[in-house]
Amino acid sequence: MDLLTQINTDKVPSHVAVIMDGNGRWAKQKGKPRVFGHKNGVKAVRQTIDAAGNAGIKALTLFAFSTENWNRPKAEVKTLMTLLLTSLKREANELDKNNIKLQVIGNLESIPSSVLKGLNKVIEQTKSNDALTLTIALSYGSREEIVNAVKNISKKIVNKELSIEEIDENILNNHLYTFTLPDVDLMIRTSGEKRISNFLLWQIAYAELHFTDVLWPDFSKDNFYNALLEYQNRERRYGKTSDQIEKNK
Ligand code: FPP
After folding, report:
1. Helix (H, G, I), strand (E, B) or coil at 63
2. What is the CATH number of the domain that holds 233?
3. Which tens digit of pLDDT belongs to each residue from 141-175?
4. Protein residues whose CB sits closer than 6 Å to any atom of ligand 1
């Protein structure tokens, strides 16, 4: 049976975040260089975006490149940047046609300007779309994001635009790169690793976590739907008891 038909579209997570892991190991298993894994990872990205759209997800955030990934061999970094740019440029019209808005988060100052320029074109082309917001985390690190937020809040205090008493969770949230997005409801990580790796630490406070052994290039629409089905079968209590949750249904 088609897994998509089993999903309760009224109960899908508003925001799904994905740590796409295992490209290197996938390539190694096939006796190929790591970049072969990344190239094939792009297919899984397309499947995931498609599946998220089909399920009616409003926000999908993909971890494409971390601040730590700059330490990888130069040639791999270059391939990843090129791959990212060429795939997003190639898919720009398709994203637009499907009413998908692209945005990029992270420490963008460290991204080569040619890559940023190309991405900005796609961002501009898709900015009015509202079915799905596709956020690519690039040169992203959650702690760096929080430090950046604290700096910007501090500047406002120094400039007397804000008082210390006014600082609350909302204010901090509004200074994160993800300020336009809702909290993450579901985080998926592929390749069998059970770590968060400095991804959206603030935003996953109440998220359900889904770990799968599938290596990223093999991740399919059905794998995504399975994660959604598992999410729908879990009870999210936000610190309350099961009885309290039942009564409020
Ligand atoms: C993790 O596998 C994957 C990455 C660091 C890069 C993900 C990037 C893509 C799939 C390219 C295109 C992206 C978009 C959004 C078009 P790994 O190299 O850490 O694998 P390993 O843990 O097996 O070594």
Report:
1. strand
2. 3.40.1180.10
3. 999 999 999 999 999 999 999 999 999 999 999 99
4. 20-25, 38, 41-42, 45, 62, 64, 69, 80, 83-84, 87-88, 136, 191, 216
